[in-house]
Amino acid sequence: MPSGIGDTSAQRALIQEASAAFQADKRILACWLEGSFAAGTADAWSDVDLHIAVVDENWEALLGERLQLVGRVRTVLGFVEAGLAWGARLISANVSGPVRLDLFIEKQSALDTAPRREQPVVLFDNVGVADKVKLNWNAEALIQLQLAQLVQAFFFGCAWPVRLIGREEWGTMLMNAVSIVYQFLVPAILIQDDATNFLRPQYHNERHLTSERRHRVDVLIEQIRGSFDDMGTGNLDDARVARVHQELIGAIWRELRRACQKHAVNYPDDAEREMREYYQREMGWEIEA
Questions:
Q1: How far is CA 162 from CA 64, 155, 179, 236, 250, in A?
Q2: What are the pLDDT digits (tens) for 120-139?
Q3: CA 178 to CA 190: how far, in whole Å?
Q4: Burial degree of 103 (CB within 10 A; 0-12, 13-18, 19+)
Q5: Quick check: 182 and 205 in contact, CB under 8 A?
Q6: 211-227 and 186-193 helices, crossing angle to 10°
């Protein structure tokens, strides 16, 4: 196991370099930290959540140079990006080190309405905008929105076992089953027990489960893995694969329903009923309620 869980020197060096590079660009009004480095919970594998404020009239020009902007800090090894609901732009980059930098580019006009979970730590503020950069967090509204999206997404894709078993795409089925646990089951559990951490990045959330809940998830993962033991020999026990998928789907339905009840979100009983009928018709499955 890698050592140095508390060693954040690589990220802190990146923060210093980024702050200096961004302060040299006069279009950038301010720069601050959010996320684990603002909250004081960072470890050796934490991302650096860095935010910059830009005058509205410079927004388009700076977005056009966003990769060059990150490249002034360090070489970009790879990246993904997304527009955020409140108008900010996120560039998630793996930069030389390697270190993960999540750069949020925000318009000056929208600073005081952006949702912020932690009290930001300001690195520089050239024009006095820091008073607009403050906690602004309606957790329950975001939880309800994301839970509704989680439910919709699961029912959108929950025909997957029938399709993959029918096509005998066993490797894809194994990969998908493990992914489904962390995409849907873990969040559905976490939103009941620790809703604040439910809103954090999906694939790091198992560490926020209680020890009992995490053990249950680990047991299910082991059952999934074990059901594919003979995949490479051509002697896969498809009945065992079917059993573990019935357990997985039933567990997700139960936890999503409980989460919806707790947070006053409509659960699609009709969709679950139709999927139960579909599994029964196509596979002969009876999934525990």
A1: 44, 14, 17, 16, 15
A2: 999 999 999 888 888 776 77
A3: 17
A4: buried
A5: yes
A6: 170
Q: How many residues does the chain have?
A: 289
In the CATH scheme, what architecture does the domain 9-132 have?
Answer: 2-Layer Sandwich (3.30)
DSSP codes joined into one string, 8-34: -HHHHHHHHHHHHHHHTSTTEEEEEEE
| Nearest partner of 252 among 153, 129, 111, judged by Cα | 153
Alpha carbons within 13 angstroms on the beta-carbon side of residue 232 total 3
Going 112 to 86 to 118 to 59, the CA torsion angle's sign is negative
Helix, strand, or coil here: 174? Answer: helix
Can you name the residues that pair with 104 across neighbouring β-strands? 51, 90
33-37, 84-88, 224-228, 273-277: segment of lowest average pLDDT: 84-88
Residue 12: name the closest of 33, 26, 39 by CA: 33
DSSP 120: -
Tell me which residue of 65, 47, 46, 78 sits closest to 105, measured CA to CA.
Answer: 65
Q: Which two tokens stand for residue 288?
A: 């525990």
The residues, any chain, with a CB within 8 Å of residue 195's CB and separated by 6 or more, are 139, 140, 143, 263
Q: How confident is the model at residue 248 (pLDDT cuts 50, 70, 90)?
A: very high
Name the pairing type of β-strands 48-54 and 99-107: parallel
Q: How far apart are the first and last CA of the chain?
A: 39
For 138, the token pair is: 């309606």
